[in-house]
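We emphasize that the prediction below concerns an isolated chain of 334 residues; any contacts that depend on oligomerization or on bound cofactors are therefore not represented. The input was used exactly as deposited, without trimming of termini.
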Amino acid sequence: MITIRTPYRISFFGGGTDYYDWYKEYNGDILSTTINHYNYISCRYLSPFHSNLKDKFSWKILENNKKIGNIRYQIIKSALMHYNIEQKIEIINQYDLPVCSGLGSSSSFCAGLIKMIYALKGKDISKNKLVKETINFERKILKDSGGIQDQIASIYGGLNYIHINKNGAFSVKPLDIKEGKKQILNEHLLLFFTGITRNSTYIAKNQIKSIKSRYTILSRIQEMVKYAKQVLVSDKNDLDDFGYMLDEYWKLKSSLTNKISNSLIDDIYNIAIKNGAIGGKILGAGGGGFILFYAKPNKHNNIKNALNKLINVPFKFDTTGCQTILYSPKEYYI
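Result of the prediction step, given as a token string:
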């Protein structure tokens, strides 16, 4: 059995500058962190005792297939065909939080799936190569639209500044801040699920169309990454400027396309601000999913009570990235 664990991510600043249509002209800059909620994918070769099956998959449903072409889970089917997996296998996918919710769950799954396939073949894969293969798989094989920050963040893990060059090369630099200050930031953040899942590819396509006409907004979004970094690495433990910047960032982001926010999201945001939040933002492409707030800890109960119809998800920052947590292959089943 092989099990790969890949974290979900929270993107603070720079979203949109990781889209090809932007970074090919102006580079891209992202400030993000991974959190201690994960996607798990496990796999093993099926033994001769499963001779009546070709493959077995457990996700939202249980699939038993004799042909890869019959697999209903498109991502798994595409991956097995792309990487030429012909042996009988069993794959089980489990996840801590809802998919299609703004936490980079799709890229977390794809990265874990590819790393698992390499492990299944008895091979290791570097983080840099895994990022490149995951991006290629999502964009070229699955034909999904979107940026490239999710793949980088979930694979490397940690609280990082990510820079993307015009040619697509990237660097990942962990923020040089003390654990105590990192904990202060963590303690000021609140994460809620709006109850809405959505197709991020559809929203991303709309945002890509508007990139050229939103140069001023995206330029400011990119600048905010630098200022947010300065707030976090400074000697001051007061991080409220980080919260105020999130508020400005949300207003900028929601003006990129009318698909990012809606009346429900606006109501949630306004209620949180009224009850003590300094700033916040919808995560991912927008349209639903998870919403993040920055507030002083003594205001958290007020905000939770005001938003008591939503699920509050406690979290801590993750530093591990995509990793193998179990490796025990049964080679004699091949």
